[in-house]
Amino acid sequence: MLHLVRHGRPLVEPGLLPSAWELDPAGFDAIWALRESGRLPAVARWFCSPEPMALATAQLLTDAEVGVVDGLREQKRDTPDWIEDFAATVRRAFADPDRSAHDGWEPLRVTRERVVTTVRHLIDEHPGEDLVLVGHGTAWTVLAAALSGTEPDLERWAALAMPDVLEVVST
C-alpha cells in the first residue's frame, strides 16, 4: 500500500519561495495527532520531499529512517509572490497541465512526470512493502490519479488538511 502524507501547516514567509517554507510550530499538534491516529502503517519504508516542511513533517511522524528523494518535490513554483486566489491558480494548472498557470510555475505535466516516475521506481525497489511518502498536495493529487488510472480529484485536493493522508493502490 502507498500512503501519501501531505505535510503539516507551513509557516508562510512572504518574499520566500514556498519550497523553502518551514513548518509552523502551531501546527505540530495536528502532526502528532496523525502519528497517534493509526492511519499510518506500523512498519513501512519512509521517503519524503526535500522541502523543509515535508522533511520536518516526516521527522515528527516517525522514528524510522526517512529517505529524502528530490523527485517527490511539489510543483516547482519559482515565485515568492502571494497569489490571492491560490485555489483558482491550481485549478488552472489542472485544467491545462501543459502550460504554466502562473509566472514561475512549472507546467503540471512536468510535475506529474517527475513524481510518477520517482514513485514507480520506489515501488519497484520495494515490492510488497508499505511505503509512506511525505510531500505535497498538488503532487499527490496528480500521482494518485496517475496510479489509479482516474482523473485528478480536485475536490479531494481542496479538502486535504495539513497534514493528511491519501491511500493509493496502483494499477
From TrEMBL:
Domain of life: Bacteria
Database matches in InterPro entries: His_Pase_superF_clade-1, His_PPase_superfam
UniProt name for this protein: Histidine phosphatase family protein
Organism, scientific name: Nocardioides hankookensis
